[in-house]
Amino acid sequence: MPVDTRIIDGRLRAETLSREVAAGAERLRGATGVVPKLVTILVGEDPASKIYVRRKAEHARAIGMRSVSHHLDADLSEAALLALIAALNADREVHGILVQLPLPPQIDRVRVLAAIDPAKDIDGFHPMNVGLLASDGDGIVPCTPRGCMMLLEAELGSLQGLNALVVGCSNIVGRPMAQLLLRAGCTVSIAHIHTRDLPTLVATADLLVSAAGAPGLIRGGWLKPGATVIDVGINRVPKPDGDGTRIVGDVRFDEALGRAAAITPVPGGVGPMTIACLLDNVLRSAERLAAEGRCAAAA
Ligand SMILES: Nc1nc(=O)c2c([nH]1)NC[C@@H]1CN(c3ccc(C(=O)N[C@@H](CCC(=O)O)C(=O)O)cc3)C=[N+]21
Ligand SMILES: [Mg+2]
């Protein structure tokens, strides 16, 4: 029986969250004089990364935060990047540090992420925050999985007891996503490149979060009827008429319509939530640093 599939409006939800974050930033400024400040670091010339970093900085300013972007040469040394991070860690006016990934090959991502002050690690990628998430602690949670959880909870209410499938096991999305779903009471499976029978696994999932980065990987016919689908994939593919490119998700959207209970579109689903959650993380970091007397009021 075909169902009427709800299309989850991530852009609208993200606008609501952004307004709440803007109000929180204004409250913090009124109470303490602290204006949350985001610093982004981009190394090299990856065109997609340039766009995303600029979008994050613009959104931060649009909601009344300060933001500074460092754009560094592709041949930057790891030592130079670590020195910049050390300076930002020590800067009492900086509350959030984001090092855009991927990094060029001469720079060790693990060493760089571990060098960021965990209290300013608004991506939630520092080993301390990863560990806190894995042990049910109160650290900074990565933005994309947080955004997905907000959409899922708005859609389903309690997730307790549901079968959840996460496709993809990256440190940025898949692994933290699985941790959050586990915390919410789901029975969690993680599929990845070596998974043998993906269609059978997909058929068991009450909720599916796909972050594989593989256009059209998930066929609509594989879905459990009535499943809720969160598509994190952002895949640039040639347009059918050969005229430029467009962005599609991991899930065949058209096939999922009529079968899933609800699905996020690409674009307009998870992407905007990622940015809104990032700014929320900056606000939370600023609030915590202010409460601990570890930051300065804006000059
Ligand atoms: N340290 C770090 N932190 C990140 O959070 C991080 C990163 N590195 N590297 C790259 C990925 C990717 N990412 C996106 C953010 C917003 C959209 C976004 O706004 N998407 C819109 C528009 C899509 C488009 O037009 O390109 C949408 O889905 O509707 C997408 C992707 C953050 N990332
Ligand atoms: Mg999207």
Automatic annotation (TrEMBL):
Gene3D superfamilies, per database record: Leucine Dehydrogenase, chain A, domain 1 (3.40.50.10860), NAD(P)-binding Rossmann-like Domain (3.40.50.720)
Binding residue positions for NADP(+): G168, C169, S170, I193, I234
Keywords, ordered alphabetically: Amino-acid biosynthesis, Histidine biosynthesis, Hydrolase, Methionine biosynthesis, Multifunctional enzyme, NADP, One-carbon metabolism, Oxidoreductase, Purine biosynthesis
Annotated ranges, domain Tetrahydrofolate dehydrogenase/cyclohydrolase catalytic: 8-123
Record-listed E.C. numbers: 1.5.1.5, 3.5.4.9
Gene Ontology molecular-function annotations: methenyltetrahydrofolate cyclohydrolase activity; methylenetetrahydrofolate dehydrogenase (NADP+) activity
Reactions the enzyme catalyzes: (6R)-5,10-methenyltetrahydrofolate + H2O = (6R)-10-formyltetrahydrofolate + H(+); (6R)-5,10-methylene-5,6,7,8-tetrahydrofolate + NADP(+) = (6R)-5,10-methenyltetrahydrofolate + NADPH
One Pfam family in the UniProt entry: THF_DHG_CYH_C
InterPro entries, per the entry: Aminoacid_DH-like_N_sf, NAD(P)-bd_dom_sf, THF_DH/CycHdrlase, THF_DH/CycHdrlase_cat_dom, THF_DH/CycHdrlase_CS, THF_DH/CycHdrlase_NAD-bd_dom
Entry-linked PROSITE patterns: THF_DHG_CYH_2
Residue ranges occupied by any Tetrahydrofolate dehydrogenase/cyclohydrolase NAD(P)-binding domain in the UniProt entry: 142-288
Domain of life: Bacteria
Pathway: One-carbon metabolism; tetrahydrofolate interconversion
Keyword Translocase (UniProt): no
Subunit and partners: Homodimer.
Function in brief: Catalyzes the oxidation of 5,10-methylenetetrahydrofolate to 5,10-methenyltetrahydrofolate and then the hydrolysis of 5,10-methenyltetrahydrofolate to 10-formyltetrahydrofolate.
Entry similarity comment: Belongs to the tetrahydrofolate dehydrogenase/cyclohydrolase family.
Protein name (database record): Bifunctional protein FolD
Record organism: Sphingosinicella rhizophila
Gene: folD
